[in-house]
UniProtKB/TrEMBL annotation:
Residues 229-245 form the Prokaryotic-type class I peptide chain release factors domain. PROSITE patterns: RF_PROK_I. InterPro entries: PCRF, Pep_chain_release_fac_I, Pep_chain_release_fac_I_sf, Prokaryotic/Mito_RF, RF-1. Belongs to the prokaryotic/mitochondrial release factor family. Residues 1-97 form a coiled coil. SUPFAM superfamilies: Release factor. This is Peptide chain release factor 1. Gene3D superfamilies: 3.30.160.20, 3.30.70.1660, 6.10.140.1950. The gene is prfA. Methylated by PrmC. Methylation increases the termination efficiency of RF1. It is found in: Cytoplasm.
Length: 361
C-alpha cells in the first residue's frame, strides 16, 4: 500500500491543479480544453475523496490513541477505543476501495461500442437465440440509460438473425459489455421440436470499442453506398424519402446500415463514422491472418465446446464458465437483468489485477 500512497500524494496535487485550471477564465473560454480538464477532474474525484477520508480517519485514530495512552478519564478512554474500532474497519475498507480505483484502467472503458451477434452452431435455433441475445442487450442498455442503434443485419426466415450489428452509446458502455465477447450456449426445446427434446445451440458475440477519431483514410472508390427508405416495425415505411444509408467497404466486406438519423446526410455521416471505426479495428492487425486469429480468440468458432456462458431454459439457469458463477434467474437475465453477472466479472478481473500487483510488489 506504501507505493499506492506515494502515487496518491502526487495525484491529489494534480487534482488540485485541475480544479484551479477549471476556474481560470482562459480555460473556461476554451470549450474543448475545459471539457477535457473537466473529464479528467471527474475521473480523479472519487479516488481523491476516498484518499482524503482515509487520511482524516488515520489522523483521528492517532489522536484517539493519544487519548487512550494519556487520559485518566475512563469514559473518554472507552469512547476513543470504540471510535477507533469503527474507524479501523473503515480504513481497511477504504484501502481496498482505493487499491481498486488505482488499478490501471482500460483506455477503451469510456468508449461506446459496436456489437456483432451471429447465429453459430444449431441452424435455425442458433439464429433465434441470436435474436434473443439482441433483445437481452437492448433491454440491459435501456436499464443503463444507453442508446441502441441497429447498424446492419441479416435476418432469417424463422424470425432470428444469422448476423446482426448494433451500436450502443452511453456512459462507460465498453467497461461493462467487453466481458460479453465469446460464444454463448443455449439449452432448450426448440419451437420446431415435436418430441420435446432439449437441443443445444450457440451464438457468438463480438464487442469492439468505437474509435471517435480514427486516423484512417478510406478510398471513396472502395465504398459502395446504397440508399433506401427508413422503415419501422413490421417493415412499414415511415419515411417517404430515401434517407436510410447502407455502406459496404468492398475490400473487407464490412457493412454498415444507418437509418436512425433524420436526414440522409446525417445517416451518411454516422454510417461513415462507424464504418471507419470498424475498418480501423479490422486493420489494427498486421494482416488478415492475424485479424482472423484475434476474432477466433474473441468470439470463438461457435463450437459448443468454446463457450463463455450457458443459458439453460428447462432449469431457468445461467452459468458463466469463466468465473464459475451460476444463478437461477434465466428469465430475469434474458429480460436485461445482467448486473449480477457483469458485476461478478468486473470483481473477478479486479481481484486478478490486485493479485498480480501483489506478486510483483
Amino acid at each position: 500500500m506504501d507505493k499506492v500512497m506515494a502515487q496518491l500524494e502526487g495525484l491529489v496535487a494534480h487534482y488540485e491543479e485541475l480544479q484551479e485550471m477549471m476556474a481560470d477564465p482562459e480555460v473556461i473560454n476554451d470549450t474543448k480544453r475545459y471539457m477535457e480538464i473537466s473529464k479528467e477532474e471527474a475521473d480523479l474525484r472519487e479516488v481523491v475523496q476516498k484518499y482524503n477520508k482515509y487520511k482524516a480517519d488515520k489522523k483521528e485514530i492517532a489522536d484517539n490513541k493519544e487519548i487512550i495512552s494519556s487520559e485518566s478519564d475512563s469514559d473518554l478512554v472507552e469512547m476513543a477505543k470504540e471510535e477507533n474500532s469503527d474507524l479501523e474497519k473503515e480504513v481497511d475498507e477504504l484501502e481496498d476501495q482505493i487499491k481498486i480505483l488505482m488499478l490501471p484502467k482500460d483506455p477503451n472503458d469510456d468508449k461506446d461500442i459496436i456489437m456483432e451477434i451471429r447465429g453459430a452452431a444449431g441452424g435455425d435455433e442458433a439464429s433465434l437465440f441470436a435474436g434473443d441475445l439482441l433483445r437481452m442487450y437492448e433491454k440491459y442498455a435501456e436499464k443503463e440509460g444507453w442508446n441502441v442503434s441497429l447498424i446492419d443485419s441479416e435476418p432469417t426466415e424463422v424470425g432470428g438473425y444469422k448476423r446482426v450489428g448494433l451500436m450502443i452509446t452511453g456512459d462507460k458502455v465498453y467497461s461493462k459489455l467487453k466481458y460479453e465477447n465469446g460464444a454463448h450456449r443455449v439449452q432448450r426445446v426448440p419451437v420446431t421440436e415435436s418430441q420435446g427434446r432439449v437441443h443445444t445451440s450457440t451464438a457468438t458475440v463480438a464487442v469492439m470499442p468505437e474509435y471517435e477519431q480514427v486516423d484512417i483514410d478510406i478510398d471513396p472508390k472502395d465504398i459502395r453506398v446504397d440508399v433506401y427508405r427508413s422503415s419501422g416495425a413490421g417493415g412499414q415505411h415511415i419515411n417517404k424519402t430515401s434517407s436510410a444509408v447502407r455502406m459496404t467497404h468492398l475490400p473487407t466486406g464490412i457493412v454498415v446500415a444507418m437509418q436512425d438519423q433524420r436526414s440522409q446526410q446525417q445517416n451518411r455521416e454516422k454510417a461513415m463514422q462507424i464504418l471507419k471505426s470498424r475498418v480501423y479495428d479490422y486493420y489494427e492487425s498486421q494482416n488478415r491472418d492475424q485479424y482472423d486469429a484475434q476474432r477466433k480468440d474473441a468470439v470463438g468458432t461457435g463450437d459448443r465446446s468454446e463457450r463463455i456462458r450457458t443459458y439453460n431454459y428447462p432449469q431457468n439457469r445461467v452459468t458463466d464458465h469463466r468465473i464459475g458463477l451460476t444463478i437461477n434467474k434465466l428469465d430475469r437475465v434474458m429480460n436485461g437483468e445482467l448486473d449480477q453477472i457483469i458485476d461478478a466479472l468486473i470483481l473477478y478481473n479486479q481481484t486478478k489485477q490486485l493479485e498480480e500487483l501483489a506478486d510483483n510488489a
